[in-house]
């Protein structure tokens, strides 16, 4: 069999969610390019706290202007982060609140909407996954709604579904979501 080629059998199982797709292998040039980009963009002072930068300033003879610039940059990042709305958990959405919560979300805030049914096992698993992810990404608004309460006659085979909104309009949709998230191999346990 040729390198990096899959069989029709494997393609069908990947599509059905039984197998995970094979990871693409990168050649030496791609790996080298990524390594160079990472090395060039690395900045050891970038993620230091204000206290750590103060200690460096006290203990080293580094240029005070550079340290002051990093402190100001970090303070600006912290102020910007503090000014943004925070969510941190999976909200239950009611149909009558749709306009306010989804279309009326603050500018540039992603809204991830989980369409689910309580009787569907994959919906329950995806709900637990989204609860964990919501805690890790508090700037993203995670919401869930029973699919048939949101869209009349919503098909059970399309549950669970994910729709992502930004600035009041749909950004991306994954319906049904398990096809895109590993099928029955989805796991709610955080690592």
Keywords:
191 residues; alpha/beta; Glutaredoxin; 3 domains; five-stranded mixed sheet; 7 helices; 5 strands; 41% helix; 15% strand; flat
Residue share in helix:
40-55%
The count of strands amounts to 5
Rg for CA atoms: 23 Å
Largest sheet: 5 strands, mixed
Mean pLDDT, rounded to whole units?
A: 81
Low-pLDDT ranges = none
Q: How many domains, in number, for the residues?
A: 3
Strand content: 5-15%
Tell me the number of helical segments per DSSP (H or I, 4 or more residues long): 7
CATH architecture classification name of the largest domain: 3-Layer(aba) Sandwich
Instruction: Identify the strand order in the major beta sheet.
Output: 1-3-2-4-5
CATH class (first level) name of the largest domain = Alpha Beta
Shape: flat
Distance between the termini: 35 Å
Determine the structural class based on helices, strands and strand pairing: alpha/beta
Query: What's the order of the H and E elements?
Result: HHHHEHEHEHEE
CATH topology of the largest domain: Glutaredoxin
Description:
The protein has a five-stranded mixed sheet with strand order 1-3-2-4-5. It is α/β, with parallel strands linked by helices. Helix content is 41%, strand content 15%. It contains seven helices and five strands. The chain folds into three domains: 8-41, no CATH class; 50-83; 90-185, 3-Layer(aba) Sandwich (Glutaredoxin). A hairpin with a 2-residue loop joins β4 (161-166) and β5. α3 packs antiparallel against α4.
Which helices and strands occur, and which strands form pairs?
Layout: H1 8-16, H2 28-41, H3 50-59, H4 64-83, E1 90-92, H5 98-103, E2 110-116, H6 121-136, E3 141-146, H7 147-150, E4 161-166, E5 169-174
Parallel strand pairs: 1-3, 2-3
Antiparallel strand pairs: 2-4, 4-5
